[in-house]
Design goal:
single chain, 100 residues, alpha+beta, 3 helices, 4 strands
Length: 100
């Protein structure tokens, strides 16, 4: 069992149903109170890569995590406020969920 699962710049490369299936597949290996960390690019970053398939904002990511039975412990824009993600391609959404 693992303390955390990190999906950094992964799920934006797949459809939502595939992303959910991927996360669901690994959740049994996460310790109780373990964390899943999902990081996705904001608008400018998303548009900068032709292999990106689905745009997820922090609420979209949080909904996926919550629907899989985890509790959201963090939902933020990094490193700058979300509006910066409209023109700075390295701004990211970071969402953390805890297995309960």
């Amino acid at each position: 069992y693992y303390d955390s699962i990190l999906l950094a710049h992964v799920i934006e490369h797949m459809q939502k149903t595939t992303a959910i299936k991927l996360i669901k597949e690994y959740l049994p290996y996460l310790k109780r109170t373990g964390q899943i960390i999902v990081i996705c690019p904001q608008k400018k970053g998303y548009l900068s890569d032709s292999t990106h398939r689905t745009f997820y904002n922090r609420n979209d990511i949080a909904k996926i995590i919550e629907d899989l039975g985890l509790k959201i412990t963090q939902k933020q824009s990094f490193p700058f406020p979300e509006k910066v993600g409209d023109f700075f391609k390295y701004n990211e959404y970071v969402v953390v969920g805890e297995k309960i």
